[in-house]
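Homework help board

Subject: predicted structure for assignment chain

Our instructor gave us this sequence and asked us to write out the predicted structure in token form, then describe one feature. I got the tokens but I'm not sure how to describe them. Can anyone check?
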Amino acid sequence: MDEEIKLLHDLLLKLGVTLTLAAVLFGVYYFMSRKRAKKVPGYFFATYVITLSLYVLLILNESDLVEAVDLWEGAYLWTKFAAYLGTAFYLLKAADLLLVEDYLVAKKGIHIPELIRLLLLFTALAGAALMFLRTVMGINVVALVAIPTAATAVIGFALQDTLKRFFAGLMLGKLIRVGDWVCVAGKEGRVLKVDLGHVTILTRDDDQVTIPNNVVVQQDILNYSKPTTNHARTTLVEAAYGAPPTQVQTILIEAAKAVPGVLPDPGPEAFVVAFKDSAVQYRLKFWIKDYARMQDVEGQVLAYVWYAFQRHGIEIPYPQRTIHMTKAPDETSLQTSKRERILKALRRIEFLSVLGPEELDVVAGEAKIQVYLPGEVVVRQGDAGTEFFFILEGDAEVRRGEGETGATVAALNSVQFFGEMALLTGEPRSATIVAKTRLEVLVISKEALARPIMINPVLAERIGGILAERKVEMATHQDRAAHRGEQAHDIAAQTKTLGSRIRKFFGTAAR
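My token output:
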């Protein structure tokens, strides 16, 4: 009885140790796979179950307590060989994950292609198999390696294409990685996989293309992700001869800067390319970081350029061969509708309420409607300007300061306005205004308001009074304890000051 208990104890101990070691080894591999967000392959589970089952079979066979399991010598040796080989596979995979992938690749940043890692794994596994054949099976491995020369030649000839792809794959591991955006063999896309025989690419149309490695290495490989992910794009734009080139270049650069996805450093550049038959041709160069969004960003740049040209009155000319027929039948009605919209907006501007119908009509004739896209700067803090802006549609942000010290201090919405002091006195912009959404504004210039004020200089005092009242109310908005008498005194003083500044700015001070 004591002998049976001892045998049972030894059997359970061996099984416990084997299962514990197997669980730890599997746990390490599973944890590392989850850490790298990789799915554990099915063959790994299969190998794990088979190897563990072989060890249990060997333990039961070696125990005198279980008589039902009795392997003959040949089967026992092959079972032992397979179990050891499975263990070697697990140890090599664990070393690959811990040493190569987690330490050398992830922490040290050393790029080791998947093909090289796979080749090292197979080589080490083959070495372990030869060692186990010698130590476990007692087989002379030298005799196994001595394959007849004729057979080697036949196999080499039959597998020459496969071998070419394999060695080409080793070379490709240095040139492209999974996730890179490349153009190979005329196909552009993101690299999904580089295996022993093929490169797999996912195109922009979500089509999967598989190209043999030996074909890829014979082609020019354009890698958009190396040496850095920064990538320059160039687009050609034409502008009418009447627009000064330096002005057009500045507008192109500012438009590109405002587009989300365009890098601020290095910043966009614009160059004159050629004098064409009907236009001056410019090259706009800008940099992006995410090549996957290349087409979207490039399209947005062209859209921003179009709106910027519209605001500055720069024409993108038709080819000279284009024949312009009569105006569209509804153009007159469109102009009338636009004029009514402008007049309606002008009537809502408080400090212009002193203007009569004829004077408003004069201003409406000179006013313009402009559109800014999200991110574009309407006015910049500190810049000189003589234009006033009334928001017809959209939202904008008011920013003060530059760079890291800059901050958004307010928001502007439809029916609000800004720039009145620049319009009436010419003082520099007190803040930067940036379009938050698509922003449509009514723009009134100094020239548009000059005629009514020149004809009737009293308007300067009236406008100054309204602005002074608005300015004092804003200044005392946070001070609820301010006395109305003091506020009225401030309004009177600022009315006189503003009226004088407006008359001087519009050249009516002597009247």
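Reply (TA_rk): Your tokens look well-formed. For the description, you could write something like this. The chain has 16 helices and 16 strands. That's the kind of observation they're looking for.
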